[in-house]
Amino acid sequence: MANYSILINTCDKFEDCWVPYFKLHAQYWTNCDGRLFLNTETKDFSYPNLEIVSIKVNGDELAGRLTWSECILRALDKIDDDIVLYMQEDYFIKAPVENDLVEKYVQLMSGDHSIDCIHLTDQAVINEGQSKYDGLYKVKVKQRYRISCQAALWRKAVLKSYLRAHESAWQFEEFGSKRSVKMNHDFYVVDPTVVKLDQFEIIPYVFTGIVQGRWKEEVVPLFAKHGIAIDFKKRGFLEDAPRRSLGLKIDTFRKRLPAALNSYLDLYLNTNADIRTLNNK
């Protein structure tokens, strides 16, 4: 059995997801051998019969919140294992996990250090139709989102090399994918003819239970089935969200522009340095 950690990425304002997430984890992943890390900002959390490390990346700092990428970088620094399974607090597991396959791919990565990432779902990336390993395909290089925040096994050092402290999750996916074209890493994805949404999934989960701060309707029957009580009125549902005004869209663009410019600058000035550093290890 190879060692690996499961990083459940979150922030304190998503605390209402933690009990549902771990109740479903306890129900559907009873033979999980991965060490559980919950990437909280300042809060502790526990759940019966599960060993969960609350990372508390923001500690006692009250000066301001960390960016999404800063939180991930701090969390990874607190994890000793070389292989990390990335999850999020609203990836609610809805059926038994194929733990044998998770373990198989962890073992494969442990024995073959040329494998840098394995996407465990058909919903994340596009494959290029070439298979090197049983059940895995190389990820197509030229695609908008070659890097995804969906469930994947990552080599920790490689994941860190793609993170930039100023980026949000969406910017990490977009600009990390651009960086990946230049950086020499081998990404793989499960065979989409075998692993299919709602047919056969390695980790069957709701693909993002909260969008734009609101619940997706999909979680309602899942929570009801498992006796999970949630006041859905506090967040509301995505389908009831008002349309964003043009002014709000312009304001959002204005706020995101400085980070995007930093990412473009980093892309053309610093990515080659990352390549040299990693290739010399």
Task: Describe, in plain words, how this protein is organized in 3D.
With about 280 residues, the protein is α/β, with parallel strands linked by helices. It is about 35% helix and about 15% strand. The protein has eight helices and ten strands. The protein has helices spanning about 20-30, 70-75, 100-110, 155-160, 170-180, 220-225, 245-270, 270-280; strands at about 5-10, 35-40, 50-55, 85-90, 115-120, 135-140, 150-155, 185-190, 210, 215. The protein has an eight-stranded mixed beta sheet, with helices on both faces. A two-stranded antiparallel sheet has the order 9-10. Helix 5 (about 170-180) packs parallel to helix 7 (about 245-270). The longest helix has 24 residues, at about 245-270.
Report strand order across the widest sheet.
3-2-1-4-7-5-8-6
Care to count the β-strands?
10
End-to-end distance: 26 Å
Give the rounded overall mean pLDDT.
Answer: 89
The main pleated sheet reads as: 8 strands, mixed
| Total count of helical runs of at least 4 residues | 8
Rg (C-alpha, Å): 19 Å
Question: Which bin fits the share of residues in helices?
Answer: 25-40%
Shape: globular
Strand content: 5-15%
Structural class from helices and strands? alpha/beta
Compressed to H and E, one letter per element, the order equals EHEEHEHEEEHHEEEHHH
- Give unreliable regions as ranges: 273-281
